[in-house]
Write a structure and sequence with these properties.
7 strands; signal; alpha/beta; 5 helices; His_PPase_superfam; His_Pase_superF_clade-1; 7-stranded mixed β-sheet
Amino acid sequence: MRHFLFLLCLVPGLAWADDWDALAQPGSIAIMRHALAPGTGDPADFDLQDCATQRNLDAQGRAQARAVGEGFRARGVSFDVVLTSQWCRTRETAELLDLGPVVEAPPLNSFFGDFSSRDRQTAETRELIAATEGRLMLVTHQVNIAALTGRTTRSGEVLVIVPRGGRIDVLGSIAIAP
């Protein structure tokens, strides 16, 4: 069985992880690292208002975002709101998912270039989660997800989380190969 699962991971478009059932847990939230955007970080002179100055999704990343959205829709999963950082690669990922209305949320912005805002943004993200009603999805960056959950993610990977008291529990992971 292990060899079969390994082979499935080699086929593009198939899930690396398959924790779709975790979404059925009461209070579960999906938090996604933006789809594939080659490179690391952003250029030193990037402008949040100008996508041409940022690291962006490539064709493979756009296809990955669409495939993740198709995976959710095939299982009848949509969201009341999809909150996203203001970076172009996260906004584009959220829009291509086509899983619900997309709303920018500055606490989800990357702090990769300046970790001094990590604790404040993580606290604000927790507050945002607590204040949002309905089925929620977040699209953000690796550093934000790690700060919130303690877990690293691949490009396009979705963690299924649930807030419990003062902590965030990870219930599962869904990842569709780029």
